[in-house]
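Consider this record:
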Amino acid sequence: MWETPAVVPITGIMAAGKSTVAELLARRVPRSVHLRGDVFRRMVVNGRAEMTAQPSEEAWRQLRLRYELAATVADRYAGAGFTVVLQDVVLCEP
């Protein structure tokens, strides 16, 4: 399937089936990682700013941090020879 490690993003709205698709894809690749971007949000124990209909600047800052962390981890796994299926909801700031 993939001879060269890659980072494959899977995105969509909540409950669209991202987890299912990402897990199934990762299982088909011999050296693979299923990386869930949301895990970085859940690591914040105190001070987490949630994304709402009117997100605060802090919520956007934490979302950008989450994306940066996920991208860094994905790149490190790919650099070690894994194909990474990166699952997350991708939002753009207005």
